[in-house]
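Q: Could you write out the predicted structure for this multi-component system? I'm mainly interested in how the pieces pack against one another.
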Amino acid sequence: MAAAEKIFAQKGFYGATMENIAEEAELSPATLYLYFRSKDELFASLNLKMLKVLVEKMEAVRERKELNPEQKIMALKEALYDVYRSDPLNVINVLRFQSSEELRNLSPDLSSKIKDEARKYLRVIAGIFEDGVSEGSFMNGHPVAFADIVWGLFAGLVLWEDTKKGFDPTKDFLKPTLAFAIEIISRGVKKH
Amino acid sequence: MAAAEKIFAQKGFYGATMENIAEEAELSPATLYLYFRSKDELFASLNLKMLKVLVEKMEAVRERKELNPEQKIMALKEALYDVYRSDPLNVINVLRFQSSEELRNLSPDLSSKIKDEARKYLRVIAGIFEDGVSEGSFMNGHPVAFADIVWGLFAGLVLWEDTKKGFDPTKDFLKPTLAFAIEIISRGVKKH
Amino acid sequence: MAAAEKIFAQKGFYGATMENIAEEAELSPATLYLYFRSKDELFASLNLKMLKVLVEKMEAVRERKELNPEQKIMALKEALYDVYRSDPLNVINVLRFQSSEELRNLSPDLSSKIKDEARKYLRVIAGIFEDGVSEGSFMNGHPVAFADIVWGLFAGLVLWEDTKKGFDPTKDFLKPTLAFAIEIISRGVKKH
Amino acid sequence: MAAAEKIFAQKGFYGATMENIAEEAELSPATLYLYFRSKDELFASLNLKMLKVLVEKMEAVRERKELNPEQKIMALKEALYDVYRSDPLNVINVLRFQSSEELRNLSPDLSSKIKDEARKYLRVIAGIFEDGVSEGSFMNGHPVAFADIVWGLFAGLVLWEDTKKGFDPTKDFLKPTLAFAIEIISRGVKKH
DNA sequence: AATGAATGAGCATTCATTCAT
DNA sequence: AATGAATGAATGCTCATTCAT
């Protein structure tokens, strides 16, 4: 998986070949198939791994009793950015192929694990929002929609900043832009 | 281009073959190459077309003198959603491949046209934000960052809702979620 | 097709690769796929070609008005052996893979053409037998069963003699054995 | 061997993998190689087993002193059909690969055992024919050729009926067709 | 006696792209 | 303006077989 991570990060999903990955792993291509049924599943396993890290970080945020909902939303920013920074290229890959048709024929097992994980992080974000609503400090709104917004924003910004880096590789504004975005959102949901 | 639009929408970028497109266009594959240097450029032309429509809609929003900056931000929501609704599958494709490695070797001409267009719509959004700031009704912040946020949010939500549709095809919450998102943002940038 | 014939004859269906065949044909493997959808279909086309030759020869026998049914059965022997001798290795291949599972996913078109041809030669043999029965010179019996017997005998002998050649390559008794077989059959169906 | 029989019958020689067979046998693939040098040899062992059953049945026919040569030929029919019915799919496989190139590199030991067995059943059939000739009730002819004919007919009909079942799976005419064939042959060899 | 782990060698098939006509 | 015919270059995946343990 480490080899796959490296190769996918370098070449993208379609650019990477099983042979590349095998070479990196100092194995033969056939051996890869002992552990992963297909290229798709190998890739999806990376996806799952990232999701797990993400969920973990987010749940940690939720548990921090000393923070109020608003502060928790601000803290999410760090959690999201940490995940990105831990392996930017793979996060980009994962986000890009999140919804790819090609990834639809995963084994039911892997597929449901990914769905579970996705549900979990949505629940965390939705939960924080709900807390704010019941506390009376947040405006009303559908908690799941809020979760979708935070997640979509993160994915969209990561991808978009990457695109912009394609135009001008010296610039990387993800961190401040993400911070600004979360600030706006955090202000936006507050009642006044 | 109409044929390509149809086929890319049906099968995605990698799923579509030049032969498929040629067939749809009732031409031979070779003929496609008289008009487009490569598959990537054909795809990018679609991309450009969509961007132009988007920019047009956004500039129209900017020009509506009767609206104040806050109202303009709310109006962007419609512009963005309209573009999506005009050809959802292709918008998804375009957004997904926005930053794809494969699209890095476009002809300089096409590449710079796309960059121009992208710059334009960012400038529109940034412009609206700036107006609000100078008017004194919006908080301070970097206008381009704001534009990135709006765009990233749009792209991220479109892609993410598409992913969720993969899990449960009956649900399509893009419209209300986008509306909620813009509302939050619009509230978030206001001074109070 | 000539190249395929040669290669299949040399190496058998599984032993032959599309690359071998392409090389023999002085084409690239990809070009083969312009004319045949798959290796199976290429092979089946050869099959069809042989069947057509066979049917032609058999229909010629049937039309020879100067022969009575018994003499026609004797004449079949020549027709069958001629087909074999025209390309022994391919006849063997065709007979061996006649019923192979792998050949079940042919295009409906090719598949039905083959069935048609098969029906034709069965009808010829059955027809000869029927003539003998209605003339009163042959015993009673199901004409199609008779056709199956003649065909099965031919295929079985060709394959079996080939097997024996595997044990001792110097011997080739197909011709006399086939002659003997047809003689027995011809005597066996006659009333006395 | 039981596992192999089952798997080969289900999937054919090429369709079956050593792993399939190992799984069915609740062993690891490697273990199979403790008992059989190769897939070919495993398959050939099944072949040999079937031949032995066949030879046994045929020798039993030959020994039945109460039958005259003509009746013995009729009795062969039952012997052959019994063997088929005991495991149709495997008989088909064995007959199909009887002469396969792939089976040429068996160990000398196995190879010669198979040849011995083949020789035995040919000798039985030839013997019955010879008895009829010396008794004066059969026409003259080469006894081995006669044996080849009976065997080829059996193999050819089994394979051909299987092919026809591929076209129309509801029909299975092997038994009556085989009976008719043996009747013709038995009548055909008699002097009158 | 058994096998977990590994792989060498292959192979059918695909497809963007070319170019003589 | 158009294309028929061709292909170079891949590539995911398979499977019989091996061998240290």
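A: Regarding packing and overall arrangement: Chain C has one domain: 40-189.
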